[in-house]
Amino acid sequence: MEDRDDYDDVSMDRDLERYLRYLEKSVRELQVEKKSLMDELGQCRIELEKMLQPPLIEAVVIDVLPDGRVIVKSSTGPNLIVGVSSRVDPSGLRPGVSVALNNRGSEIVEILGTREDPLVTAMKLVEKPKTKYSDIGGLEEQIREIREVVELPLKNPELFRKLGIEPPKGVLLYGPPGVGKTLLARAVAGETNATFIRLVASELAQKFIGEGARIVREVFALARKNAPSIVLIDEIDAIAAKRIDIGTSGEREIHRTLTQLLAELDGFDPLDNVKIIATTNRIDILDPAILRPGRFDRIIYIPLPDKRARKEIFRVHTRRLNIKGEIDLDMLASITEGASGADIKAICTEAGYIAIRAGRDYITLEDLVEAAKKIMSKKGSGISGVVDVETPPTAQNKQAAYQHI
Ligand SMILES: Nc1ncnc2c1ncn2[C@@H]1O[C@H](COP(=O)(O)OP(=O)(O)OP(=O)(O)O)[C@@H](O)[C@H]1O
Ligand SMILES: [Mg+2]
Which CATH superfamily is domain 124-301 in? Predict the structure, then answer.
């Protein structure tokens, strides 16, 4: 009997031991699971905290006051006078630096550093324009002149240093609409190995208060950083009209943009490898300040094409057309007296439509003649509804105005 009990005891011990081991293993497993759940909880807490945090406000430092407070222009609108958090190094606060304000907008909590405006960065054409000099008809003299002023100093600054002369900083192209001013500027950029930045002045003029001037500043900084570069300011009259009547805040704003532009023109060394090309069809309303020597030193007039030039422009634009038969370029040039390059381009496009309407996939001389008649008669009546022709009825008067400048 005793034996039996002994046996039972031993087996119970063994069972208990096994059970204990089993429990120990479970505890270990649960501990591991607990740890992973705690980790997860921690992550969730961090996420939650981030979600509950109000957003910071972006602002740009305008000035640092003697008492250490800072005037900033907040992205929400007004200029604010704010304190600086003790975590921020005040020596990094300079005008123009971008900072983050706390959510109440009362304190600078972080310096974001100077950053390029995405607007400005977008303006930099990483892809150079594909325009070539051979895409321009009849402007040989103007091409020669602009190459001398823009290309030569960029390619061979040494020559200018040796001669002791200062190459011009900028060129102004002016003339009636649609004669190829923008085209010529793009071709210079396309043929030179320079960074090309295009600024459309009318867009600048629409910017918020202070923005226009800032963008001008940033564009020039970008141009200098990526030198050699060409800055094209298209339709400069939008910001450089005579500063006569500075009444509304919009006009004051444009004035500030212009002042900044003049400061940039004066500010950089002409051998800085930044060249500016501006275009306008209203040189008569430009502020004389912009035309002062040392700013746009070369002013190149681009006239309406004469007969020879029109023939060349027809040659350029008919090159890509699928034409059947002979094309009499001389004849086309002679029936398009007064047409601009843009008109000639429109004539070629219109000829294509005439061919389409006739169910053909090629263009004939007759199509071109018919298109020319159509475009020229519209031009005469002052209507300019075809393609991208932009010829206001006053073109002739303006033409007269350019002549005496
Ligand atoms: N001399 C030219 N040779 C070839 N094409 C031309 C010429 N002039 C104008 N064109 C054609 O007309 C289009 C418009 O020209 P462009 O934009 O250069 O005119 P613009 O002088 O800048 O006019 P605006 O003063 O209205 O800005 C060009 O894209 C081009 O196709
Ligand atoms: Mg233009």
Answer: P-loop containing nucleotide triphosphate hydrolases (3.40.50.300)
